[in-house]
Design brief:
9 helices; 0% strand; mainly alpha; 297 residues; globular
């Protein structure tokens, strides 16, 4: 993570004095800095809390749940409208995937809606990357300092490692719950020491170590995969925005601006596939890991 920049007021003063705007490096650094509270509140240190990621992830999560509730409330048995048909298509798609992976019908009553919520939630958080780079940060540029807060704002929650790892750790906890529920506490502990190499006391330490490595590896890769793809996508959008900000009434400046428009359009269209695919992959891995928790070794 890039080191924090100076306060916005200081930035503006320095820029006004020099008559120049931020350098490309400063522009990129500024856009990669999270909104944080640099002061300790009582005995608790909140300086590591990314308030922008929390705000957008919670808001989008509530929005997804509200849309699904609205679709369920307005569902009819007759010919469905476009909105109901779209939601039914998503529900059937996720349900078919859940049936093929989680064979316990009772578990699917929770896992199916969970997978649907995860897919739509992650998709919406990813889709924030399609907003113009400076749209919301520029609004916050006026509102933030007026509220006594820093002039930093990142709007893509899944480009924040703490969010993606929080999601993957939650999936891990759900998997641990189903391991105990399906196999029983004794059965799961027995499996930890006897799989995958067999029930021999000399192999117990190796089996246990392999099980712990598997849990950690699956959790880390689950969160890191989503974070890496969205962080890279966000960074490319920032670099494309720099091309547009460098335009002048010259052949080079006009070429950069045209390149900005072409590259931004092409990357946005391609990125629609990326954000959808990453949401689908995250959902599928969630189903796979929960399905594995139901399997006996």
């Amino acid at each position: 993570m890039a080191p924090p920049l100076t306060d916005n007021a200081t930035d503006q003063t320095n820029m006004a004095a020099s008559g120049t705007g931020p350098t490309p490096g400063e522009y990129v650094q500024h856009h990669l800095q999270h909104l944080q509270n640099t002061k300790q509140v009582g005995p608790v240190d909140f300086s590591v809390v990314n308030y922008d990621s929390l705000f957008f992830s919670i808001t989008l999560g509530v929005l997804v749940c509200w849309v699904l509730w609205l679709a369920a409330r307005k569902a009819t048995s007759g010919v469905p409208g476009r909105f109901q048909a779209a939601v039914e298509f998503l529900v059937e798609m996720v349900d078919s995937q859940a049936k093929g992976i989680v064979h316990n019908a009772q578990s699917r009553k929770f896992v199916g809606p969970l997978a649907l919520t995860v897919f739509l939630w992650v998709f919406m958080m990813n889709a924030m990357d399609l907003l113009p780079v400076d749209l919301i940060p520029q609004i916050w540029h006026t509102a933030g300092p007026a509220l006594g807060m820093k002039d930093y704002m990142r709007v893509v929650p899944t480009a924040d490692l703490s969010i993606t790892m929080g999601l993957s750790v939650t999936v891990l906890l759900i998997c641990l719950y189903y391991n105990v529920k399906i196999k029983g506490l004794g059965g799961w502990i027995h499996e930890l020491f006897t799989a995958p190499f067999g029930n021999h006391f000399l192999l117990w330490p190796v089996n246990f170590a392999m099980q712990m490595i598997e849990f950690v590896a699956k959790t880390v890769s689950h969160g890191m995969r989503l974070f890496g793809n969205l962080y890279a996508g966000e960074l490319i959008f920032i670099l494309i925005a720099l091309m547009g900000g460098a335009w002048t009434l010259s052949a080079t400046g006009i070429s950069l601006f045209i390149g900005h428009l072409v590259a931004g359009t092409v990357w946005a269209i391609f990125h629609i596939l990326i954000i959808t695919l990453q949401a689908f992959v995250f959902m599928m891995l969630t189903l796979v890991y929960i399905g594995q928790a139901h399997d006996h070794h």
